[in-house]
Amino acid sequence: MARTHPGTIVVGAGQAGLSLATRLRELGDTDPVVLVGDEDTPPYERPPLSKGYLRGEVARETLVLRDREWLAEHGIELVTGDAVTSVERRVDGGTGGTGGIARLASGRAIEFARLALTTGAVSRALDLPGAGLLGVHCLRTLDDADALAARLGPAREVVVIGGGFIGLEVAAGARAVGKSVTVVEVAGRLLPRAITPMLSDVYLAAHTRRGTRILLGTEAVALHGDEGGAVRAVELADGTLLSADLVVVGVGAVPRTDLALSLGLEVSAAGIVVDEHALASDGRTVAAGDCAVGPNPFFRGRPGPTRLESVPHATDQARTAAETLLGHPAAYDTVPWFWSDQADLRLQIAGLVADADLTVRRGGADPETMTLLSYRDGLLVGGECLGSPHDYIAIKRGLEKGLTIDPAAAEDPTVPLKRLLRAVEDGAGTPGTRTTNGS
């Protein structure tokens, strides 16, 4: 039976969905909020899945962000293990023309006044012969992690297809527990879309030192199994067979846009198209997180549609979406930040380093402790900090204030970046530049 007091339905109970729902309450919204997720669990942290949880170092219950009781106390109804299969919009003067009814797979119908899509993404499928063999796994959800962990224990030879963050995090964890690990990456360097070439080289050397075999510019063309249907080898384009009793596929993610398409919203290959207020093309639905693509929120980033996959982005964009729903739109304008733990390597990134025309290394002799500062057209656009948390904090705060450090000054590791940035901000001392958002 439909709800009699329509409020907001949030489709997708991940990080973005939870952040949107809780932000509505923070802003004083007292209307009903229903958070619908197709997984059986309450909203949970995804980053540990490829790291501590996979290795059995993190308990399942500690992953839960907010449990059902906490949500109920804040007036948020959580629906798990169910999926929104269709949405019927209607023009209703009482709800400003924004309402409708969402129908769930269970048969339940939920009336709403406001609609938010935080549907996330799914792992990109491996389109190769043998991709359906036993022992071939992706990693996106808690169920994926449980299945992969069960297979990792008895495995001896692991092949990871894809040298992105998920692939390298899993590879580092598998190597740390004594597995033979090979990473196959079709590009000529690791993490080609996320980090600078200089840092790609650092990671290549670091993983190699730890015993992981890295094959760059190499394409997997087929997977081969035994008579029982379990994977036994990965075939490469040159005919080489890599022995494997576990294959982990990490070749990206595809935004979930089926519901948006059914609503007639503008959708691109990168996701549901939204504006700077997280508002979709119909002017009434909001979308946020991994499912959405919108203007680059980083004022020093390249203009144009941008989809960022990270917890901070999902959280911040979802908060913007909540404000838009309540009629208080504020542009989503923030410095992106990311992190990755690969074995004992801790990487923190502030800004967007793609298309940088200058990268400056800051650090001593330790090949695994450094900061790489990236510049474009003379402006600092990002920093990659490996084992350098103080530099990371300084760079992020500097970017938020529109500051730039002279590259020559930044290269000297004996002078704290915080001091250099303070000098720029004060307009004296170290050479530098200060700009305002949009410049």
From TrEMBL:
Q: What does the UniProt keyword field contain?
A: FAD, Flavoprotein, Oxidoreductase
Using the record's annotation, list all stretches that form the FAD/NAD(P)-binding domain: 9-318
Q: What Pfam family does this protein match (any one)?
A: Reductase_C
GO molecular function terms listed in the Swiss-Prot or TrEMBL record = oxidoreductase activity, acting on NAD(P)H
Give any Gene Ontology cellular component. Answer: cytoplasm
Q: Which domain of life is it from?
A: Bacteria
Instruction: Give the Reductase C-terminal domain ranges.
Output: 337-421
The cofactors named for this UniProt entry are: FAD
Which InterPro entries does this UniProt record tie to the protein?
Answer: FAD-oxidoreductase/Apoptosis, FAD/NAD-bd_sf, FAD/NAD-binding_dom, FAD/NAD-linked_Rdtase_dimer_sf, Reductase_C
Q: What is this protein called?
A: Ferredoxin
Report the source organism.
Answer: Intrasporangium oryzae NRRL B-24470
